[in-house]
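PROTEIN–LIGAND DATA SHEET

This sheet pairs a single protein chain with one bound small molecule, pyridoxal-5'-phosphate, given as SMILES. Inputs appear in the order they were entered. The predicted three-dimensional arrangement of chain and ligand is reported afterwards as a C-alpha cell string under its own label.
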Amino acid sequence: MTAITEPVDLRSDTVTRPSPGMRRAMAQAPVGDDQYGEDPSVNRLQQRIAGLLGKEAALFVPSGTMANQIALKLLTRPGDEVLVADEAHMMWHEAGAGAANAGVQFSAIGTGGHFTSDDFRAACKPAGHIVLPPTGLVAIENTHNLGGGIVFPQEEAAAICAAARALGVACYLDGARLFNAAIASGIGLAELVLPFDLASVALSKGLGCPVGSVMAGSARDIARAVRVRRMFGGAMRQSGILAAAGLYALDHNIDRLAADHANARAIAELLAGLPGIALDLATVQTNIVVFRLDAGMPDAASIVARAKEAGILISALGPRTLRAVTHLDVSRDACLRAADRLAAAIIERQ
Ligand SMILES: *Cc1c(COP(=O)(O)O)cnc(C)c1O
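PREDICTION REPORTED AS:
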C-alpha cells in the first residue's frame, strides 16, 4: 500500500489550521454579545493589541480586507487619491473595494513595495487644486506581500508620515504581516506603528488563527470604526470564540515566526542557485519567497502544476512569477524536502 502523504502547502500562510491548544482556548473562551460590548474575550484581545501597538484603542474585525476598507472609509473622502506602494494589497487584491466602498482612486509609487518620502512628496496632490484628485491618505504595507515579504525601512516610514502630517494627509499601516516585520527587524511593534494614525494586524496569517484582524488607533477613530464595521456587515456577536484564538496566538505564535523566516531563507538559497530563475535573496527577509522564471523557461502555471505532482503547493502570482510562503504548519524538514522537489520540478526537462 502506498502511503498517502499530505502535500506541503506553501501557497500562503493563511492555510494553517488551528492547533489543538488553540482549539482548546477557543472552546473554553468566555463570550458575550460583542455588539453590546459584552464579549470578555474580544475586549481582552482588543486591549492587548492596543497595548502592544501603543495605541489608545483597538477593534476586532473579520478580515484584513475589511480592516483596510474601514481605514479607507475613515481616513478619506470620495474622490480622494490614496498613495500606495507598487502592487499594494489594497489596490490589487481587494476586488475593487476601495473604489466601490470609499470612492477613492489609488496611485502606486516607488518600486518593489518601497517608496521614499521624496517619492511621496513628489506624488502628493494638494487639496483645493482645480483638476487634481486631492491626496487624502498614504498607506504602507509592512511587510509587503507581493514585494516578497520585505520589511519597510522604519526611518523612511517615519519620514513619510511626518511629511504626510505636514501636508494634512492621513497615514495608515496595512500590517497584515507586522509581526513578521517586528521579528525580522528587531524593532518593537509599537515603534513600527508609532508614525501612523491607524494600523491593522492580521491574526489569520503567520499567527495561525482561523479568522480575524485587529485595527488600532486613537479612541476617536476606533469609535468611528465601530460604526463603519457595522455598515460593512462585519459586526459580530459571540466572536470571543475567534478572539480567543488571537489571544492564544499572541502568547504562543509570535517568537516562533523566526523559524518560518529561516525556513523561507533555506528554500530561497536553494532556488536562487538554479538556472532560469531570478530570485533576489535581498528580498527574502521574512516568510515569503517570490521568484521569477526567465524567458525560455516554462510559465508559472506549468511550474505550479509540476510542483503539485511532486506534492508541493505554491502560488503563481503572475504569468512568470511564483510565490512560496512558510508558516507554522510546515516544519523545517518539510521545507527542505519541498525546496528539493521544487528545484527538481523547475529544472526538469521541458
Ligand atoms: C492578506 C492581506 C490582507 C487581507 O487579509 P484578508 O484577511 O485575506 O482579507 C491585507 N493586506 C495584506 C498586505 C495582506 O497580505
